[in-house]
């Protein structure tokens, strides 16, 4: 059993608190009329898709965390790099904590156990020195020595800074405020809803020994991750939306990759379409 994640007696993680608070406060500048432009909206929408769908959902989650399909190594690295742009920590930490979550989902040892409340599972678990962080190396032996993963783990913030400089060169401060800060806030909370909302709202299709739910609006925001009960029941499956009405855009992306020969050994749940 991993170390406890009881909220009492855990010291505040001030670096994370300051980091998250700063990003949220700067994102408010997007509401100033002087920082608005349709170009900034467009670049934000594109980077949101590239970060949340291609990076986090397709790369960090379905490919690396669960190995539900395989890609050429160069494509895996590209997807991981896109996930790094989410600035939710490096890929090694993200994958390790996610694997720990699945091992102990909604039980003692789950880093964001939903039994501790919506706030805790949504973001509170990151604002303390969570003991689960110490167990990440045990769950990431397949990637922790890969030089590319190590680079992204160490330099995910400088990578974001470089992106910000490119956006400033291209479109000025409005592109930076919208394309970096507002986009990060959107990606943060949409990703966190998978930890919080889908363990509270929605319906259960399968027994999963936790509180995971299928939540349509989270699925819409996260390109298919909201079919969370399906995912917890069949963690290895590349497809999360198992019924025809459970739209899963990430699964469609995987099928597109397979069409071009870029995805193989795709694992699927034993459920009839």
From TrEMBL:
Its EC number is 1.14.19.-. This is Delta-9 acyl-phospholipid desaturase. It comes from Cyanobacterium aponinum (strain PCC 10605). InterPro entries: Acyl-CoA_DS, FA_desaturase_dom. Its main location: membrane. One of its GO terms (molecular function) is oxidoreductase activity, acting on paired donors, with oxidation of a pair of donors resulting in the reduction of molecular oxygen to two molecules of water. One of its GO terms (cellular component) is membrane. Signal peptide: none annotated. It is found in: Membrane. GO terms for biological process: fatty acid biosynthetic process. It is a multi-pass membrane protein.
């Amino acid at each position: 059993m991993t170390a406890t994640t009881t909220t009492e007696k855990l010291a505040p993680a001030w670096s994370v608190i300051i980091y998250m608070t700063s990003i949220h406060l700067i994102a408010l500048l997007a509401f100033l009329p002087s920082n608005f432009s349709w170009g900034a909206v467009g670049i934000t929408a594109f980077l949101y898709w590239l970060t949340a769908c291609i990076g986090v959902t397709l790369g960090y989650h379905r490919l690396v965390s669960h190995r539900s399909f395989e890609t050429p190594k160069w494509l895996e690295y590209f997807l991981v790099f896109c996930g790094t742009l989410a600035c939710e920590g490096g890929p090694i930490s993200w994958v390790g904590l996610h694997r720990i979550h699945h091992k102990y989902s909604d039980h003692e040892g789950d880093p964001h156990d939903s039994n501790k409340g919506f706030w805790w599972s949504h973001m509170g678990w990151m604002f303390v020195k969570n003991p689960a962080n110490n167990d990440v190396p045990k769950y990431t032996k397949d990637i922790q020595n890969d030089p590319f993963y190590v680079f992204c783990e160490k330099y995910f913030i400088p990578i974001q800074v470089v992106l910000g400089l490119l956006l400033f060169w291209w479109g000025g401060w409005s592109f930076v405020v919208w394309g970096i800060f507002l986009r990060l806030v959107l990606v943060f909370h949409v990703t966190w809803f998978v930890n919080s909302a889908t363990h509270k709202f929605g319906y259960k299709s399968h027994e999963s020994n936790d509180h995971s739910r299928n939540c349509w609006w989270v699925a819409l925001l996260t390109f298919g991750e909201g079919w969370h009960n399906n995912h917890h029941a069949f963690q290895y499956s590349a497809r999360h939306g198992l019924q025809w009405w459970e739209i899963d855009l990430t699964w469609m992306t995987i099928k597109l990759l397979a069409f071009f020969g870029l995805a193989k050994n795709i694992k699927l749940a034993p459920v009839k379409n």
